Amino acid sequence: MLGRILGGIATSLLFSAFESWLVAEHNKRGFEPQWLSITFSKAIFLGNGLVAIISGLFANLLTDNLGFGPVAPFDAAACFLAIGMAVILSTWTENYGDPSESKNLVTQFKVAASAISSVEKKPKEKTPNTQLSFTSASR
To answer: What is the DSSP annotation of 36-86?
Structure first.
């Protein structure tokens, strides 16, 4: 059970840390606000969809066509991870956040909960209640 909880926390951090960094850097550098939504939409298509397709094709090439065996895609992934790490370490700067807003963890959680609860929710659209009736014709 503890593993499931920690796995959920790790997954949440994995999928939110980069987005948080991106939003902070975007605001820090003074880019146009609408560019952020464009960046996220391109990341969904290119980062998730297209890269997944190309990765699958490359894995197939390594295992079937080049005959490196079933472990080759994982070895290739480790190589790409090392290349990405080298690029990130050499080109990205650390984002420590806004030093003027140094608050303790409890205060940050209170602010976050307040922001989440203040979001207006759209009313659900009413869909017409259509029922399908099936009739069986007996012969």
So the answer is: HHHHHHHIIIIIIIIHHHHHHHHHHIIIIIS---TTHHHHHHHHHHHHHHH
